[in-house]
Amino acid sequence: MPFRLYQNELYVAALILCITNLLFTFLQRRTDKMHNKLYILMNIVIAANAFSVVLSSFVWEYKLTSEAAFAAERFSQFSYFLIHLGLGPMFAFYVLYASGMERRVSMPVQIAWGAPFVIAELMLITNPFTRWMYYFDAKRDFQRNWGEYLVYACCIVYFVYSFITLIFSWKSLTWKKRVALGFFFVVVAAGVLIQMLYYELPVELFAEALGMMGVMIAIEAEDDRIDSDTGFYNRRALQTDIAAYLTNRKRFSVICIKVTNAEIIQRATGSQNTDILSQILSDYLKSVVKRYYIYNATAESFILTMMEQQEADIKPLAEEISARFEQPFRFNEMDIPLTAVVITADVPARLHTANDVLAMADYPVPKKITRKVLCGEDLDYLLRRVAVEEAVSRGLKEHSFEVYYQPTYHIDGRLHGAEALIRLHDPVIGSVFPDEFIPVAEQIGMIDLLDNFVFSEVCQFWQSGIPSEYGMDCINVNLSVMHCMQPDFVTVINQIAESAGIDKSRINFEITESVAATDYNVLSALVTSLKHEGYHFSMDDYGTGYSNMESIFSLDFDVVKIDKSILWSAEKGGIGSIVLENTVRMVQQMQRRILVEGVETQAQIDLLRRLGVDYLQGFFFSRPIPKREFIDLISGGTYKVPEPEPEPEPETAAEIPADTEEPNTD
Ligand code: C2E
Ligand code: CA
Ligand code: CA
Fold first, then answer.
1. Phi and psi of 563, rounded to 5°?
2. 597: CA distance to ligand 3 center in Å?
3. Angle in degrees, CA 321, 323, 328, rounded to 5
4. If pLDDT is split at 50, 70 and 90, which confidence band does 548 have?
5. Which residues are close to ligand 2, an ion, with C-beta < 5 A?
6. Closest ligand to 431 CA?
7. What's the CA gap between 567 and 24, in Å, rounded?
8. Residues in Cβ contact with 302 at an 8 Å cutoff, skipping those fewer than 6 apart
9. Which of 151, 195, 399, 466 could be disulfide-bonded to 204 (CB atoms 3.0-4.6 Å)?
């Protein structure tokens, strides 16, 4: 064989692998970050080494005797070692940066990491005189000397560095990264070892190139992290990056840009494509920070991570971004006026977890906050929101939800029934009211579990016989839109009712008016099918929405619950009382019974009696109370006025009327 192919094919393969790695790295523009650069450098080193070996091999085979060829051979050996020695430290630093650990190794220590490399290079440079590493014998054959084992020792030092880094960063690495780096270690270690022991089997470079390919596929490739059109990172990338930053104790700030009128894009462009917003903002955002610090967290929000910056440093930038949104954005020859809220926070000082950061993007800014740039204490709503979310999840696991009952009365003072109202007593954040946690439960998709819990408690209560014993007609159960629009809703509800064995007509579901307005068709079908099963229905919070009267009254409701705000404003006379009177008259003409909630005073009762409504509910009679107290209340037993709950509204009275004709208001 004229050309020692059995050796060279491994080098050629290594060369091809490295070129492939480089090609894909550049094709996908993964060149920005420190570890990208190290990765490219390592591939270049391996490729250059492989190339020089192949080249010198040709020279060696064909022109053995020429002096020039021998010089070339010596030079190629020398340059091989010169650059190959860099691979160890490069890999160690690669692991350091790719795992995000660089902040945890101080600069002096990082510099000290270079020591073995410097020693090895010095040995190499002095080798022509010392011949400690290698030499050419009389027959001009390459011979290794003891110094080369020292070089291997240096290599081992870098392996150990990398390995330790890997162990320390283990928690912050995704399993893909772990496998890729582990694979690299094993393959390269095997290659180095084989080549050290059997010089005739030069697999080291090939093993390194192969390991690099594994690293490219699993670490450098970011297809699952990146949006190919805009080049922004996606939500998953945000989650893993923040988690890794936190594990590596990095300090940084985040800027969240929440576009508040994204629906305008659909109107302007006529396209449903949710990527358009990213495209519109792409150039602008890239002019603010480097592309790889931009995350597209939700369809309407972007998060920018600002490493090593404090909130105070980025405040001006946040103001600038906010100001930019006062001008329209240009897209396809159109001016699109976008509005946005910009939120800034320090991590981990202010927002402590990846979830908190995602919450910036996910949660709506409360209406009462009107500023365009939020920072510092403005973010309390977020943390509270996250805490409530955790409390809801915890509550289901740890059974910290409880059903309270608030009695309802006939206008003549007889007990009519009760409304079941859910309460959360959380061990961490204390009592939370449904107005706060119901929307959270809806957003995190747990509302069905809550409503079902309430419903089964109510069924069991009814099944105990106590409610009917004391003359209750029914118990009212609130339903959330989110829940009752689910396809298996009726089936699940029936299962619960049937397994408790209750009479379905004793259950009165409450649905709010606003729901009726939005999903009228679905709701209509739902009401019909539930009424067919025997349940009753109330329309809750009547008077708070702007629903179409005709639609509303074509739904088969038994009772309309007039919202407390209507009652309260009626008391002040003027327009309010006209609204109440007309509402009552209209509902009566529609042949529905009327319940008025929020009754707090005797004067209100007198007013409602004059108007001729059917039922009353309110603090005047009782606040919502736990089941035991409720039983005491309706049984006229040893019921005591409960400790007032810290409700938002001030309490007026909470004593049970012995005779509701003359309620006790003290
Ligand atoms: P809602 O259905 O309108 O319930 C009536 C609310 O008015 C209750 O507040 C009740 O405590 C309060 N209330 C009753 N009478 C008076 C009064 O005289 N004065 C004042 N100031 N307030 C009175 P709560 O229990 O905080 O519930 C708030 C809302 O949370 C409910 O409004 C309902 O929409 C929702 N909710 C409560 N429990 C559930 C549930 O089990 N499932 C669902 N989906 N929603 C629930
Ligand atoms: Ca209700
Ligand atoms: Ca209501």
1. -65, 150
2. 7
3. 95
4. low
5. 478, 510, 540
6. 1
7. 70
8. 232, 256, 257, 278, 281, 285, 294, 295, 296
9. 195
pTM: 0.73
**pLDDT for the residue numbered 186:** 92
Torsion sign (Cα): 448, 456, 627, 660: positive
Residues 202/12, Cβ–Cβ less than 8 Å? no
The dihedral built from the CA positions of residue 363, 368, 372 and 375, taken in this order, carries a sign that is: negative
Give the position of tokens 């943390």.
Answer: 383
DSSP run (H or E) holding 562 = strand 559-562
Residues in the chain: 666
Strands 373-374 and 401-410: unpaired
Q: Which atom of ligand 1 is nearest to the CA of 453?
A: 41
Q: How far is the CA of 15 from the centre of ligand 1 (A)?
A: 72
Would you say the CB of residue 454 lies under 6 angstroms from ligand 1? Answer: yes
Six token digits for residue 262: 């994204």
Cis bond before residue 366 (omega within 30° of 0): no
Structure confidence at residue 65 (pLDDT):
64
Q: Which of 98, 59, 99 is nearest to 77 (CA)?
A: 59
Proximal ligand: closest to the CA of 435: 1
Mutate which of 438, 485, 595 for ligand 1? The one with the most ligand atoms within 8 Å of its CB, which is: 438
Sign of CA dihedral 84, 89, 92, 94: negative
| Nearest alpha carbon, ligand 1 atom 46 | 478
**pLDDT (0 to 100) of residue 258:** 96
Nearest Cα residue to atom 3 of ligand 1: 541
Q: Is 649 in the pocket of ligand 1 (CB under 6 A)?
A: yes
* Ligand 1 lined by 484 (C-beta under 6 Å): no
**Tokens standing for 52?**
């020089």
Which is the closest atom of ligand 1 to the Cα of 480? 44
